[in-house]
Amino acid sequence: xxxxxxxxxxxxxxxxxxxxxxxxxxxxxxxxxxxxxxxxxxxxxxxxxxxxxxxxxxxxxxxxxxxxxxxxxxxxxxxxxxxxxxxxxxxxxxxxxxxxxxxxxxxxxxxxxxxxxxxxxxxxxxxxxxxxxxxxxxxxxxxxxxxxxxxxxxxxxxxxxxxxxxxxxxxxxxxxxxxxxxxxxxxxxxxxxxxxxxxxxxxxxxxxxxxxxxxxxxxxxxxxxxxxxxxxxxxxxxxxxxxxxxxxxxxxxxxxxxxxxxxxxxxxxxxxxxxxxxxxxxxxxxxxxxxxxxxxxxxxxxxxxxxxxxxxxxxxxxxxxxxxxxxxxxxxxxxxxxxxxxxxxxxxxxxxxxxxxxxxxxxxxxxxxxxxxxxxxxxxxxxxxxxxxxxxxxxxxxxxxxxxxxxxxxxxxxxxxxxxxxxxxxxxxxxxxxxxxxxxxxxxxxxx
Length: 448
Description:
By secondary structure, the chain is of the alpha+beta class.
């Protein structure tokens, strides 16, 4: 774990937004939990200057695609080298790092020997020099890149473990099962931001990697934009100050968890990723944190009760392992929030939906509508695509999600936003369609 004596540890708070009232016999309880970390790794979007020898014990690995397609055009590989060099310039002194090149197998570009280098002016320069030898050739087996990255990050005692992955093609030289096995093996050991350059890669593969490893996914259609994007990603990674934060959910006897989702800044379903942590208690991974705020949507099913009854439907805690030292490594609570259920005969109270719950229910539906609409479009189902993408336009407009609205407008002609009336465009740039699919899970917060 991180050496917290050398770092600024964020303070966590948890706020609960819900309508606790249920009709007689009602069972389903919804709540939005806003988790905020302050006083940690970032201020104004920039990394806090290192304290002592560089803040928490952190490690980062950059995975660069060097398959044959990266040479078509040559600007892709050139852009990848420049982006990796720019990211290395952003790595704090004292942070451990490595560069991995991948095609149908993974190789260590720098420093080699199954280890991580310590960031300093000399090691950055050496790593950049090693990048000059990078040539394109071979196929693509991303699972092997991830496994090597996992081994490298496990070679040192680290608190923050992060990776950046760049690819331009489909994972054609290993089976989906092999990639899934690699993701399962790496899940929980490091976080990973994934980027697709150009338009020849598979959106669902890249987004699945980022989702499984609690990172971000995006398209960089023009290789010239890679350096700026990698710099932003590395700045964000350097701003992380506490790792392995879990959302612990306790529910009473007879209650069950229907789902747990992160809903801001992106939609990520965490339901199937929980680990039991005690009687009627489960932990959901949230990854590493700096100064930031995220929202989670919980749906709980409680035993039915009569009018006037009240119960604690759930207790949410933020937990992390204890810092290094003589104390036992037991999860330490950072903050908690309570979810309530109250049965009432007041029809208006029992049927009201809390605005936060309504907003994020709409954002989750928006992401689903975009995905379903694009899938229908690819399969030639014009009516289905028009209906789903029209619903997406309606939801984006109603929630103020301007980013999704602009991306949708490149795929459909919007006739009426309020009713979701659209026409599919006859010609759509492949990069625009991929951008919409890749960014479909990005949400906006409800305006207060």
